[in-house]
């Protein structure tokens, strides 16, 4: 039975009290006794040989404790940063994995690559001394653009990767696709650039390493989305510290969006340095370092073609993508443009034949890895841009062409030609909800009104599907994952009936401390203040995989349900003993255990008391205590889906695009907390809108310098850039294979938004003869396109 | 050169010796342990460090500590009442889910209070324009805007002295 604070209730968040009063504890807020400060010496060049490093002046500077380079690191046997996913090329050969030492030894491969660390008594002293480290650089030719890196005369990023190719991968049936194209009545082709983005969590990365010489224990405080993954990778591969001597704490984390999934060099260096100097070592990135060294997102160049019959039915889809991996393979980088991208190219449609090729390429840029959506926004962008372009070319209404091609709900579960099996989804229902809310029927009148004011109005759609909660582990393993993809939970009742829940997932804004508590409150009839949700500390929580890919609730929440099942099963046995009844006669309802048809009843708190003071307890049958742990490995992905409708108005004189309305109809399965879900959608939307209209990470093509390395140059969405949103969802189609029926909502907004915005922009510009524009649709780019179209002779 | 400064922080007198290059945000975070004020950038763009200096919002990463000598500084830690009752703007952010990771929140709340001081009855457009100096990557601003509008209304109703003194 749902309590007022249970599943489905719009409970305000419990974590807000500390955040609103300045009492949050982010990594940089932590200060350890005797702490020293680290500042990294980074490459100013995109590609260079390190001929010599002279640290003498820095070592002699006031307050300096140590200056360490790759040489000391190598002498201590410290390993390189590992990659957590191995992709194989078409020919069966494994991807190329260049060495990635935490401090570069003889060559740097991107601007910001670190070669030394200065450790001093204060941050200022370390910063001053870092400027005294003399590095003798021999500059090498650099390449930053992925397609340029494929040219025959391109600079070589790594000798180990001829032609700069990391892997050349494919998925799908090329023969079937060729046959589909051969019989097509119409083929729509697009060349698309999916811009490189910088995730830009507002909290810069930070790390504090600490070593206890008495116990041999290391502790790392780090702004991470998954402390256990960091402990595993750093402990086993880099520093070679056994897990029982390494604790990783990810305290309050100020946003991640994927960029804080990965194991970064600085984490390993501060932990190693703390042991070397015998004092805690703290490092906090400044924003410039974040721009240069946080893993970036997207950066695809794609040629795509959609084959259709005369009625606008999709026959085949062919996609060829070049994916920029940057200078090194970040932790999960290879999986993003492959198993999280090409597998989503069916979208919501019955396209019978799909073939995708992906060339992953090294360049002299920051590594590229998962950024909110991770592969799925790229897939949605390809599919949805093609669909709207095809509709326009064939003269079919854009809602109608989607209806003709949707996989009907009646055909679920549905196996796509690109390796996924959608368990459920009613795509037409999303469209049906979105259209009236967006007043699609009234659009023509609004466009005419805009035209009277000299403005161009456009409306665009994106119907997206995503695959969340990557799993099962054995399938992911067969596809190259070098980690499990389950989640853990422990539910510990205390003797007086309060509960501590330990989850392996991690909250960095998602609100687990509220939503996970709601699930427990619902199950056991408890008040929220009797429940504590603990996460982010490997010394406290069981091994877990953290939070990314919209997995916390679908995977972590399912583990929580499994642990609660175990608690309830044990409590039922205890209740039967205490009530002197058969277990089969005990009825359980929201934490109340009652002998059927009687008023003999016990609450979970009384049972917990008996479990820890086992005087009236079945000691022959059960161990004392009420504390259960569970691991949940999903049977399949979950498939959140929905429909975005974006309406824009463009001033043709200035090229300024104004978002006038944005409507969303989603299917996230069951919703635990509507307040939190709505917030996740809003935030996701603005990250997609940011890509479409504002953001673009740009390196100078010849020097490899990052030209958008500050908020003054990289256009982050601000409050004045976006409208308020209309967000709606239905809960009619719960996930079929997890106990909560939940699908995930964290990335959905981002996945659909960029495509919807660009489709609206193109719609507005179509009357001027423009069929394609790459992101971001800045005033300059739109104005230029309009001007070029005006002087172009009519075809 | 080290300089000794005296100022009021959240109503309490504070005297510290600082380097001439020490920023106000460093004084607050590193000397006084008031870590609620955050640093999110190095170009005065993100607004995570906004505090009130003599009643007006400033980016504390763009003010030297010595410039605050003799001033009254208010930070996020000083907003709630002694009994823990939240300021109406803090309460509005909580009610409308105007925060997620919480990192931009202190600066956002401090900016919002100053916004209401200057515009006691703001429109949505005004709120969006006025928050230009505060970046949030989590919320998409939708709920922040709702929170500020709602907080402004409560502050008006409560006769908040800050709201009444709508100077400029």
Any overview of this molecule?
- The complex is a heterodimer of chains A (795) and B (168).
- By secondary structure, chain A is of the alpha+beta class.
- Chain A is 28% helix and 23% strand.
- In chain A, helix 16 (552-579) packs across helix 17 and helix 18 packs across helix 19.
- In chain A, strands 3-5-1-12-9-10-11 form a 7-stranded mixed beta sheet, with helices on both faces.
- In chain A, strand 10 (217-222), helix 7 and strand 11 (246-249) form a beta-alpha-beta unit.
- Chain A folds into 3 domains: 16-22 and 486-632, 2-Layer Sandwich (Aldehyde Oxidoreductase, domain 4); 31-140 and 203-254 and 260-293, Alpha-Beta Complex (Aldehyde Oxidoreductase, domain 3), CATH 3.90.1170; 374-469 and 637-791, 2-Layer Sandwich (Aldehyde Oxidoreductase, domain 4).
- Chain A has 20 helices and 28 strands.
- The radius of gyration of chain B is 16 Å and the shape is globular.
- Mean pLDDT of chain B is 94; it is low at 161-168.
- Chain B has helices at 24-31, 88-95, 105-118, 124-130, 142-157, 161-164; strands spanning 3-9, 12-18, 50-53, 56-59, 72-74.
- In chain B, helix 2 runs antiparallel to helix 5 and helix 3 packs across helix 5.
- Chain B has 6 helices and 5 strands.
- Chain B has 2 domains: 3-76, Beta-grasp domain (Ubiquitin-like (UB roll)), CATH 3.10.20; 88-164, [2Fe-2S]-binding domain (DNA polymerase, domain 1, Orthogonal Bundle), CATH 1.10.150.
- The longest helix of chain B is centred in the C-terminal third of the chain and has 16 residues, at 142-157.
- Chain B is α+β, with helices and mostly antiparallel strands and 168 residues long.
- A 5-stranded mixed beta sheet of chain B has the order 2-1-5-3-4, with helices on both faces.
In short:
The complex is a heterodimer of chains A (795) and B (168). Chain A is α+β, with helices and mostly antiparallel strands.
């Amino acid at each position: 039975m749902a309590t007022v604070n249970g599943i489905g209730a719009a409970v305000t968040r419990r974590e807000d009290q500390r955040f609103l009063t300045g009492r949050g504890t982010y990594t940089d807020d932590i200060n350890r006794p005797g702490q020293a400060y680290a500042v990294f010496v980074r490459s100013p060049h995109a590609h260079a040989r390190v001929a010599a490093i002279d640290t003498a002046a820095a070592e002699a500077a006031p307050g300096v404790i140590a200056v360490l380079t790759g040489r000391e690191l190598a002498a201590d046997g410290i390993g390189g940063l590992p990659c957590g996913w191995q992709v194989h090329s078409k020919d069966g050969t494994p991807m190329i994995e260049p060495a990635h030492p935490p401090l570069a030894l003889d060559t740097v491969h991107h601007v910001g690559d670190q070669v030394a660390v200065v450790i001093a008594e204060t941050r200022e002293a370390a910063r001053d001394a870092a400027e005294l480290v003399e590095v003798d650089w021999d500059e090498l030719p650099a390449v930053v653009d992925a397609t340029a890196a494929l040219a025959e005369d391109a600079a070589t990023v790594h000798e180990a990767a001829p032609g700069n190719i990391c892997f050349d991968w494919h998925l799908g049936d090329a023969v079937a696709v060729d046959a589909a194209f051969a019989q097509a009545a119409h083929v729509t082709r697009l060349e698309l650039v999916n811009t490189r983005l910088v995730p830009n969590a507002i909290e810069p990365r930070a790390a504090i390493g600490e070593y206890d010489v008495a116990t041999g224990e290391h502790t790392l405080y780090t702004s991470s989305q998954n402390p256990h993954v960091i402990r595993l990778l750093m402990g086993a591969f880099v520093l070679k510290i056994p897990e029982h001597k390494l604790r990783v704490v990810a305290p309050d984390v100020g946003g991640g969006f994927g960029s804080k999934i990965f194991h970064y060099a600085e984490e390993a260096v501060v932990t190693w340095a703390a042991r070397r100097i015998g004092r805690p070592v703290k490092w906090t990135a400044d924003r410039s370092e974040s721009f240069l060294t946080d893993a970036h997102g997207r950066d695809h160049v794609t040629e795509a073609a959609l084959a259709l019959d005369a009625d606008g039915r999709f026959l085949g889809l062919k996609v060829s993508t070049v994916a920029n991996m940057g200078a090194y393979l970040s932790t999960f980088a290879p999986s993003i443009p492959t198993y999280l991208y090409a597998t989503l190219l069916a979208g919501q449609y019955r396209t019978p034949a799909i073939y995708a090729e992906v060339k992953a390429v090294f360049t002299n840029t920051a590594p590229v890895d998962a950024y909110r959506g991770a592969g799925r926004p790229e897939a949605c962008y390809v599919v949805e841009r093609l669909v709207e372009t095809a509709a326009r070319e064939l003269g079919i209404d854009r809602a109608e062409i989607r209806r003709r091609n949707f996989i009907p709900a009646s055909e679920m579960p549905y196996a796509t030609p690109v390796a996924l099996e959608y368990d459920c989804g009613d795509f037409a229902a999303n469209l049906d909800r979105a259209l009236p809310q967006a007043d699609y029927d009234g659009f023509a009148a609004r466009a005419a009104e805009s035209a009277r004011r000299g403005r161009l109005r456009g409306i665009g759609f994106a119907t997206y599907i995503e695959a969340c909660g990557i799993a099962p582990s054995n399938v992911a393993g067969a596809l190259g994952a070098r980690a499990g993809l389950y989640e853990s939970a422990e539910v510990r009742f205390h003797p007086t009936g309060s509960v501590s829940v330990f989850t392996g997932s991690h909250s960095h804004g998602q609100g687990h401390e509220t939503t996970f508590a709601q699930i427990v409150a619902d199950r056991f009839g408890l008040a929220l203040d009797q429940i504590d949700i603990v996460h982010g500390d490997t010394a406290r929580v069981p091994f877990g995989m953290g939070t990314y890919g919209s997995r916390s609730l679908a995977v972590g929440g399912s583990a929580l349900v499994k642990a609660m099942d175990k608690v309830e099963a044990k409590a039922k046995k205890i209740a039967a003993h205490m009530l002197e009844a058969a277990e089969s006669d005990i009825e359980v309802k929201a934490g109340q255990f009652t002998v059927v048809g009687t008023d003999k009843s016990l609450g979970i708190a009384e049972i917990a008391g008996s479990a820890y003071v086992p005087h009236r307890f079945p000691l022959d049958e059960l161990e004392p205590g009420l504390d259960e742990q569970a691991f949940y490995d999903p049977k399949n992905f979950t498939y959140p889906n929905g429909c975005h409708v974006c309406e824009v108005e463009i001033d043709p004189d200035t090229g300024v695009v104004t978002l006038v309305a944005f409507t969303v109809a989603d299917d996230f399965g069951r919703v635990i907390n509507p307040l939190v879900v709505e917030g996740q959608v809003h935030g996701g939307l603005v990250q997609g809108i940011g890509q479409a209209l504002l953001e673009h990470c740009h390196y100078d093509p010849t020097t490899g310098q990052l030209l958008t390395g500050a908020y003054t140059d990289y256009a982050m969405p601000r409050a004045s850039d976006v409208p308020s949103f209309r967000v709606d969802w239905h809960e009619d189609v719960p996930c079929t294979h997890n106990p909560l029926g939940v699908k995930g909502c964290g990335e959905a907004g981002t996945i659909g938004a960029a495509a919807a915005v660009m489709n609206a922009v193109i719609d507005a510009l179509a009357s001027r003869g423009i069929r394609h524009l790459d992101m971001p649709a800045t005033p300059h780019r739109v104005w230029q396109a309009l001007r070029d179209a005006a002087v172009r002779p009519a075809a | 050169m080290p300089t000794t400064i005296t100022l009021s922080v959240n109503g309490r007198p504070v005297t510290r010796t600082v380097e001439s290059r020490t920023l106000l945000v460093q004084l607050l975070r590193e000397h006084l342990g008031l870590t609620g004020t955050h640093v999110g950038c190095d170009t005065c763009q993100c607004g995570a460090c906004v505090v009130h200096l003599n009643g007006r919002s400033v980016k504390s990463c763009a003010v030297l500590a010595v410039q605050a000598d003799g001033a009254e500084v208010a930070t996020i830690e000083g907003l709630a009442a002694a009994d823990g009752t939240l300021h109406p703007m803090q309460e509005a952010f909580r009610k409308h889910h105007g925060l997620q990771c919480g990192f931009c929140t202190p600066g956002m709340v401090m900016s919002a209070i100053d916004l209401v001081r200057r515009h006691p009855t703001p429109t949505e457009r005004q709120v969006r324009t006025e928050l230009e100096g505060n970046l949030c990557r989590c919320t998409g601003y939708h709920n922040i805007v709702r929170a500020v509008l709602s907080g402004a209304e409560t502050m008006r109703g409560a006769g908040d002295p800050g709201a009444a003194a709508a100077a400029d």
